[in-house]
């Protein structure tokens, strides 16, 4: 009888140990699943991975893309990424920072978004750009979150353009060369601007050298909008102080 009781007790203990092991295993799997769910928001993902339109970012070119070309080529990618995370993303040429010590403001690509700083999509995008040296198609990128504004939005040259007497015939402006041909002489003659030289640059960018003070040089950096044959055209103005050599 004692042998039977001992055997029964041993069998009971074995079943109990097996049940406890199963319970512990279930708890461990539940903990792992919960931990993975909790950690997931902190795992940074490549915003551009798996987005077909973003294959353009890997294109290598013999010549450098202008800011306008790079923005036009990359915007479908950013639009698709924005749609994936329910956000607005637009890329355009602009100024990455204000000018200093008579040097022109650094130009590059401005990525305007309505992302909330610190949100998962924002952190993913920051990491994705960092993996690419903060460049898109060869140009440095400045990411703006909701409410941020790029420096030097409007150039002080805009006011001077209103004083330029133009014919009633609207001139077509398709390049920066067109802008310089139409407005260059007028701007150089403006005594307030003190422009020594104005040149067409890459894409829709013009560079100029001025005798103005550092503060006024900073004010000249920005965009001007002029009327053209097919509607308003935006031109980026990059200003150099007199002591700095233009490229």
Main β-sheet, spatial strand arrangement = 1-2-4-3
Q: Write down the domain tally.
A: 3
Query: What is the number of E strands?
Result: 8
Contiguous uncertain segments of 5+ residues: 33-41
Beta-strand content bin: 15-25%
Helix content: 25-40%
The string of secondary-structure elements, in order, is HHEEHEEHHEEHEE
Number of helices: 6
> Major beta sheet, specifics?
4 strands, mixed
Structural category: alpha/beta
What is the general shape?
A: elongated
Cα Rg: 30 Å
The average pLDDT is 81
- The N- and C-terminal alpha carbons lie at a distance of 104 Å
Structural notes for this entry:
With 247 residues, this protein is of the alpha/beta class. It folds into three domains: 2-34; 52-144, no CATH class; 157-241, no CATH class. It is 38% helix and 21% strand. It contains six helices and eight strands; from the N terminus they run ααββαββααββαββ. It has helices at residues 2-39, 67-84, 120-131, 157-161, 176-189, 214-220; strands at residues 89-95, 107-113, 135-136, 139-144, 195-200, 205-210, 222-228, 231-241. The strands form two sheets. The protein has a four-stranded mixed β-sheet with strand order 1-2-4-3. A four-stranded mixed β-sheet has the order 5-6-8-7. Mean pLDDT is 81; it is low at 33-41.
